[in-house]
Amino acid sequence: MSTAADFQNYVLPTYGRFPIVPVKGSGAYLWDDAGKKYLDFCTGIAVCSIGHCHPALTAAITQQAAELLHVSNLYQIPQQAKLARSIVEDHVKIPGKIFFSNSGAEANDGMIKTARRFGHAQPQADGTPRFEVITFSQSFHGRTLGSMAATAQAKIQEGFSPLLPGFRYAPFNDVDTLHAALSPNTVALMLEPIQGEGGVNVATPEFLRAAAKLAQEHNLLLMFDEVQAGFGRCGHAMAWRALAPEIEPDCISWAKGMGGGFPIGCFWVSDRKINDSTTLSSVMGPGSHGSTYGGTPLACAASQAVLDVILKENLADHAVAMEKQIRLRFQEWQQHLFTSVKGMGLLLGLSIRPDAVTPAEGKTPAQTLVARFMEQGLLTVPAGPDVVRLLPPLNVTAAEIDEAFAKMNAAL
Ligand SMILES: *Cc1c(COP(=O)(O)O)cnc(C)c1O
């Protein structure tokens, strides 16, 4: 039977899938089962950060797979310890501790659990635990019961009520309404410094600073979801540092690009003191959280290889240079469909001019254009209804960017 027929008969139809069947990848390119070649500016949605089948990642996976795939977190795992050290020392650069998960949603659930624990450790004046996490419009935090409830988008939550309680939503990038969102139950603010799925919306430095100030004044945790934007994607190891580098968050989550295609996620909790004798990271003590698969030797060896390449090849800086190339090509481009380039580094979105595209039946303007670019051999991703997202590998070349513009031009 064909792949499409097997999907129809045996796979839950939760995704609207494009009809192509990718079977092979190398660098910034993918090939489908008919041998057609695509320039991949989707990269598994910001996952294949060092391109497809990078030799360093392939070698790390094959070597580790031949040695030891999995042991329980009941034991010491050197690859996990080393990866945690390098994330804290080389990337976050603020003392803290890591918990490893298998995905972004799981990492966010862990951060939310950390906030709940903190709310028990430091309750309201009458001893009532604080539990409420404030998240923001157009956010995307994942699809589990916890991360879906955190996601302030009705379409993601449709038909799943009752949602996990304990979330309140406030307008993104609105400094004036931030304070009004607080209640006595509030324990944390959680946000994406650069929103990916919600349309490639960059937080303003003023908004981040206002959130950090509010968190400090009201003893709230400041939690950043960098699942999509982290580890070089936005032109900096840490997305928030590209915007307001002086801020010290309490928790950060990652996934997507840190595994380069191998499933892994994690969250970091600061070692800062929450009273004379207790650190924040210690609220997640023995027995408080777990994951059978989280941080296996194989997953950590793969992620280590990816992060090593990002660091050694200076791919965050390269992402900034390639962003410049994309913005330059966009400026020179004679077209009327897009109004601007949003985003930072290589987490970019092309904003579609209102009414410039006649959408295909049942599709958004962004889906319509993504399908048209695909026919020309360029893979991109919608971000909301009106933005086409460009997520090339971090080691994309200027020539590949020029090729992408040539393909987009041909499609228009
Ligand atoms: C993709 C994404 C998630 C969810 O990650 P999964 O690995 O799909 O669970 C969470 N937050 C952000 C910002 C994301 O982009």
Tell me what the structure shows.
- By secondary structure, the chain is an alpha/beta fold.
- The protein is 35% helix and 18% strand.
- The chain has helices at 3-10, 43-46, 55-67, 78-92, 104-121, 145-150, 154-157, 175-178, 205-217, 297-312, 315-332, 365-375, 398-411, and strands at residues 22-26, 29-32, 37-40, 96-101, 132-136, 167-170, 186-191, 194-195, 201-202, 221-225, 251-254, 265-270, 338-344, 347-352, 378-379, 381-382, 387-390.
- The strands form 4 sheets. It has a 7-stranded mixed beta sheet, sandwiched between helices. Strands 1-2-3-15 form a 4-stranded mixed beta sheet.
- The relative contact order is 0.16.
- The model has no long low-confidence stretch (mean pLDDT 97).
Indicate the percent of residues in helices: 25-40%
* Cofactors, ions and other ligands in the entry: pyridoxal-5'-phosphate
Spatial strand arrangement across the major sheet: 4-12-11-10-7-5-6
Major pleated sheet: 7 strands, mixed
Oligomer: single chain
Order of SSEs? HEEEHHHEHEHHEHEEEHEEEHHEEHEEEH
Compute the average pLDDT.
Answer: 97
The poorly predicted ranges are none
End-to-end Cα distance: 35 Å
Q: Radius of gyration, Cα only, in angstroms?
A: 21 Å
- Our estimate of the beta-strand percent is 15-25%
In short:
The protein is an alpha/beta fold and 412 residues long.
Distinctive features:
35% helix; 4-stranded mixed beta sheet; 13 helices; 17 strands
